[in-house]
Amino acid sequence: MHTLEVQSRSQRGTGAARAVRRTGEIPAILYGGSEAPEKISVNQLLFMHELRRPGIFSRVFSLAGASAGKCEVLVRDIQFHPVTSIPLHIDFIRIDEAHPITVKIPVVYVNETASPGLKSGGVLNVIAHEIEVSCALKDVPESVEVDLSGLNFHDTIHAHEVPLPSGVSLVTHGRDQVMATVVAPTLMPTASEEATPTAEETPEKE
């Protein structure tokens, strides 16, 4: 559990949000559960420290300091500055222990050296670095691993093949997402092949 100190804020609008940012805070909103949404702010430096760690959307935070009191939340959305990539606004959602939550979990690909395709010069083309799952708060994993052992050229890993812990189920949205595939290397001509002219390139003798 990671604790974040937050402040309540009453002003709304673009100007008020800019004023909050000038104080070194990030505007945010806290919603979900049976309570009304609450405008808050969180220290930029502290949140940036958490942002550098993997799994920002799957880690449970304990917010302390707002008028609603201490509560457990997940980060639902982050808006970033298009140039500086500094967070401009954060959405926090309250967690209800009685109901499952939907979160995106980081996927870690392991055992690349045990993949014949990758050992032969292939490339792992990662389509998704996260997988969406549903589970109780107590069952939220920090990450899940995908074993690349035995994969050869053109082998593909789908979301339903990712092993999930007990109590954790895959959210599919009606499709089986492609997570990664092993791409065969592109064959480049050798120096001798480049130097040897083809039949069409060979000059005719006079």
Computed over alpha carbons, the radius of gyration is: 25 Å
Strand arrangement, largest sheet?
1-3-2-6-5-4
Second rung of CATH, namely the architecture of the largest domain: Beta Barrel
Domain tally: 2
**Terminal Cα separation, in Å?**
85 Å
Strand count: 13
Dominant shape: elongated
> What's the CATH superfamily of the largest domain, by name?
Ribosomal Protein L25, Chain P
Uncertain regions spanning at least 5 consecutive residues:
none
Which percent range fits the helix content? 10-25%
Helices and strands: which structural class? mainly beta
So how many helices? Answer: 4
Query: What's the mean pLDDT score?
Result: 87
**Helix-strand pattern, N to C?**
EHEEHEEEEHEEEEEEH
CATH topology of the largest domain: Ribosomal Protein L25, Chain P
Write the layout of secondary structure elements.
Elements: E1 2-8, H1 14-22, E2 25-31, E3 38-43, H2 44-51, E4 61-64, E5 71-80, E6 87-94, E7 101-110, H3 116-119, E8 123-126, E9 130-135, E10 144-147, E11 156-158, E12 169-170, E13 178-183, H4 191-195
Parallel strand pairs: 1-4, 2-6, 7-10
Antiparallel strand pairs: 1-3, 2-3, 4-5, 5-6, 7-9, 8-13, 9-12, 11-13
What can you see in these coordinates?
The chain is mostly beta strands and 206 residues long. It has two domains: 2-94, Ribosomal Protein L25, Chain P (Beta Barrel), CATH 2.40.240.10; 101-183, Ribosomal protein L25, C-terminal domain (RNA Polymerase Alpha Subunit, Chain A, domain 2, Beta Complex), CATH 2.170.120. It is 13% helix and 37% strand. It has helices at residues 14-22, 44-51, 116-119, 191-195; strands at residues 2-8, 25-31, 38-43, 61-64, 71-80, 87-94, 101-110, 123-126, 130-135, 144-147, 156-158, 169-170, 178-183. It has a six-stranded mixed β-barrel with strand order 1-3-2-6-5-4. Strand 4 (61-64) and strand 5 (71-80) form a beta hairpin. The mean pLDDT is 87.
